[in-house]
Amino acid sequence: MGGVVPDRTAEAVMRARAAITEHARLVDDFPAPGIAFKDLTPVLADPEGLSTIVTALTHGCSAIDLVAGIDARGFLLGGAVARELEVGVLAVRKGGKLPPPVLAIDYSLEYGQATLEIPADGLNLSGRRVLLVDDVLATGGTAVAAAELLHRAGAHVVGVAVIMELAGLGGRDTIARGLGPDVPVHAVALD
């Protein structure tokens, strides 16, 4: 596995936070009245913003065999982070998007049920150390479900990295309860 220089990633975290401040778009009353949504699309569309976000997501990573990006922005980020770390990438898909056979997990969201899937054939995940990557950490349920799915396939989730953590929603605590307190959660920025 490749590595990333810690000083370089610490600097990238600071630059990524500045890019978020400069480029993120606030959208009032989305997805529901009273919510101010921070749209990261303009940050990722900016070459410097994307570059610093990707490097910042690798901060603290070591001994990773694979990056798993969670549907859908996690795909974009996961591929870039995997390239930066010189490892492979796996897309953790929403239900019904992969051909069979699949490994699947159903889980609860604040607004209903959802399913995540990975291929059941063609991958040997046994013993592989996996970094989960996504854009936003909210309640943590999706990250815990993705980690459980990877665990069922024999992998070990050794960290979670996100661009932004919505600190008031308890996602970090959910991950600690679901994955254990020793699994680090790295958020480039807090909101």
What does this structure look like?
The protein is of the alpha/beta class and 191 residues long. It is 36% helix and 32% strand. The chain is built from six helices and nine strands. The protein has helices at 6-23, 41-45, 47-57, 73-85, 141-152, 171-179; strands at residues 25-28, 36-39, 66-70, 88-94, 102-109, 112-119, 129-137, 156-165, 185-190. The chain has a seven-stranded mixed beta sheet, sandwiched between helices. Helix 1 (6-23) crosses helix 3 (47-57) and helix 5 (141-152) packs parallel to helix 6. The chain starts with 5 loop residues before the first helix and ends with a strand.
Topology:
Layout: H1 6-23, E1 25-28, E2 36-39, H2 41-45, H3 47-57, E3 66-70, H4 73-85, E4 88-94, E5 102-109, E6 112-119, E7 129-137, H5 141-152, E8 156-165, H6 171-179, E9 185-190
Parallel strand pairs: 3-4, 3-7, 7-8, 8-9
Antiparallel strand pairs: 1-2, 4-6, 5-6
